[in-house]
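Hello K.,

You asked for the raw outputs rather than the summary table, so here they are, unedited. I folded two proteins back to back in the same session to keep the settings identical. This is the first:
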Amino acid sequence: LKDELFWTGPYGFRYLPTIGKDVWDGELTKADVVIFKGDLNYRKLTYDQKWPVSTPFAAALGPIATDANAPAIVALRTSKCDTITGVAPERAEALFNEREDWMYSGLYGVIQLSPGRWSESI
């Protein structure tokens, strides 16, 4: 384990290759896959923006998905706010019809993958 202030700082994870360069270059790009769990980490991954729900997860990640050395990133999350990506428009419509607060009720969740440098292999 390594103590790194970036993880508890105010920055979204899209800043890992720049402000969090020590973590990005020193640890994360050496991994094949990095798993993030939880609503707050998901929001930091997607820059806590109100994306159109159909925005691809990898697009919302920005540079940590497109960097040539990017690991695969998996997000496990119970949705507790209205930041969400990668949901097909038809599915989102059905969910809104079923339950208006589906994005922040804590009753729904997502498991999402950005393949990173493995995009050609998947």
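The second followed immediately with the same parameters:
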Amino acid sequence: MTVYYTLTFMLLAAEMVTFCILVAPLPHVVRKKLFHFLSESPIIAKLAYGIKIAFIFIAILFVDAVQRMWRITAEADLAKSSGTGAQDVRAETNMAARKFYAQRNTYLTGFCLFLSLVLTRTFYILLDLIHTQEEYAKLKNETVKAPKGDQAKQIEDLRKQLAVAQEKAKDYDILKKQAQQNAKEYDRLATELNTKTGNVSDKRKD
């Protein structure tokens, strides 16, 4: 196996180990520190940038390996279909070895690219989960600590609003009583005036 395919295999093994660490049932505190380090460390950011460049070359190797596998498969099929009599065993072995190596390189680079996508998506899903858990814990602590003061303020505000409403109701009752008294006084004065002038007051007609 050539140097670049050896490096690809090493990168694939590193991805597998990293994926196992990410999905391992770690304690929440350890997982939180680990993901904060991976997402905030400038060293990890530089390393991730270099790995992205490496994946570009691996994608090129994947395309080359696929084309080579198709070409070797076509050559093998052509040799089988146009074979005359007994074929050379060494030629068949050589063709089978070339086909095996081409398939191996295709699967190696393909799995490396696929696992990189799975690893990236898994990392960001778990990071979002940790942030959500932190926000939930923060809101829970605020709910536990703050309700006494908040409820006291709310109760005091409601009491003030109730007192204002009661004052308005009292003012309304006073105005209503005054209006009734004024109406009664008006009726009495109107009756006296009609009595003195000799006119009879008909309230229905009025």
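The two ends are 116 Å apart (CA to CA).

Happy to rerun anything if the numbers look odd on your end.

Regards,
P.
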